[in-house]
Thiol:disulfide interchange protein
Amino acid sequence: MKKISLICIALIGLGFSSVSIANESSNQADISVLKYSNNKEYITLQTEVSKAPEVVEFFSFYCPHCFDYETKYGIPKKIQENLPNDIKMTKYHVDFMGGMSPQLSEAWAVAVVLGVDDKVGPAIFDSIHTSRNLKSPSDILEIFEKVGISEAAFNEAKNSVSVGIFQKKQENAIKDFQVQSVPTFYVDGKYMVNTGGLSRSKPFDEQFSDVINFLLSLDGK
């Protein structure tokens, strides 16, 4: 009888062990289940862009959808708020939408380097899409002056090495990613958020942010 009892205890122990292993495997399987799908909510690039920012948005001040993303949906703000603390979204302005696109790309570089992009960006968007009074480079300068950047400070920054470096990165990134439309968002130089594949079952800004964080998690971030 003692031998039978010992055998039963051993089998029971193995049973609990098996259940534990099964649960652990089940949990691992749940974790590995993809929340979003390639070619649906995101697209994997055919060619990875090396040394790309972890999260990058390409936009144009002339683009009405970019304007809506900023003002109506608050997408860039929501993305940045929900990113891991050690990751910051980089924003590059494209220069292929005509008008003063090259000057606006330069103005964006100046704003980023001077740390006033959070003030200059909304002001330029407003002047183009709402008040519609941005017609010349002097109008761009006036926006900077309204946020406390003098003409002398603007010109000094415009001719600085820092702005030149940012401008070069901006131009190279547009070429490397082969950007043809805006707004577009890329993660780790490998993935592009597919706006058309996003669900409307939750707020648009939250959906966007969630997909980007998911893509970051694919690379362990």
Remarks:
- The beta strands are 42-44, 55-59, 89-93, 184-187, 191-193.
- Residues 27 and 198 are 27 Å apart (CA to CA).
